[in-house]
Amino acid sequence: MEPTNTHTHDLAYAADLTKCSQITNDYQQMALELAGPLEVIVAKVFPGHLLMVYLLTDIRRRQVWNAYLSSHRVAPHHEGLTEDQAAELRVRLLICRSYDLIVDGYGSSERGLIGLYGKLGPTAQSPDFYLLFHQTLTANEELRRSLCHAPSIYPRALSLVFILPPELQSYPFARELLDHGASTQFLELYAHIRNQSFPHKLELMERLHRLIRIGRGFRAALKDIQRALAFPPQAVPDEGPLRFISNGQALCKIADRYHNCLRSEVSSAFSGECQYYEWQCTTRAVICLKRYRESTWYISAIHLKDNASPSEALDVEIRAHFARYGIGERRCVADLFDRLLGHTVNVDEELEEFAAMRRG
């Protein structure tokens, strides 16, 4: 056959040219790679050179096909699919509207859903993905509307959305977690937060959910929640004028009252690296304890307002109070051996601790 009308680029002419070209089955591997987890059923429905139809079909339409082939109508039966059944299924894919295919496969198709399949990119996903895609986007109208404005949908991020609690199902949020490799850490932290009691929990959690839904600044809300959560148990009980500063909110109020930088120490106190106490007497002071080893604490600093130093008498009084609980005393012999027999020492910390020990 001689090719005619060589100046046209339309599909019919391209199809004619295939009859003159040396086409092998190399392209079929490309088609099956696009089929991904659906490779087996796609090969049955489009056997041999019919895979060219699957390969050349518009991405948006092909993703609807993928969804239909993954549905309860087809997926459970594909292993026993006969040639006649495969041919019938192929005709259905070719002639039915996308909307009708999704309704037939999943029972419904909400407004805007069909267009979202085309944003998933060229590669097919697993049958479970398409099932969760339909279930989640049918149930979550706000998520569905937000995805309508996305230029494309990253399937891995959407898979994370599927496993998030409903109040956290935000595509931009899922993308951010994946970009920072923080999805596992966040889910673990969120499960912990939900089980805690803390001041203004309802308002703080609602603010976190709202910022996550709109994809903006959720870290600020998370920081506020951290400030509301209780610090680890205090090393020294509240007694006489001594009061433990029990969470980040209280520590921030102390920072404002004393005109110091304790706001920046919330994370350290929350992790248990240090503890803060207020001496509530005529002359008030803030005391910082730092942890040495697992269960040993020492007085790192005593400050008045504007980071002023206490009088000698007040300093002695406060240290004597803590000494009753073993704080600020000399280290045990085992610790001294430990330090002298080859352990790496931070010189600045060592000097600070030595000065504290001398004062104690």
List the helices and strands and how they pair.
Layout (H helix, E strand, L loop, with lengths): L10 H8 L7 H10 L3 H7 L5 H6 L2 H12 L12 H13 L2 H9 L6 H5 L9 H13 L1 H8 L6 H9 L7 H9 L3 H12 L6 H14 L3 H11 L13 E3 L3 H11 L7 H6 L2 E6 L5 E8 L3 E8 L8 H12 L9 H8 L6 H13 L1
Antiparallel strand pairs: 1-2, 2-3, 3-4
Helix pairs in contact: 2-3, 5-7, 5-9, 11-12, 14-15, 15-16
Can you put this structure into words, describing what you see?
The protein is α+β, with helices and mostly antiparallel strands and 360 residues long. The protein has helices at residues 11-18, 26-35, 39-45, 51-56, 59-70, 83-95, 98-106, 113-117, 127-139, 141-148, 155-163, 171-179, 183-194, 201-214, 218-228, 248-258, 266-271, 312-323, 333-340, 347-359; strands at 242-244, 274-279, 285-292, 296-303. A four-stranded antiparallel sheet has the order 1-2-3-4, sandwiched between helices. The protein is elongated and about 100 Å long. The mean pLDDT is 87.
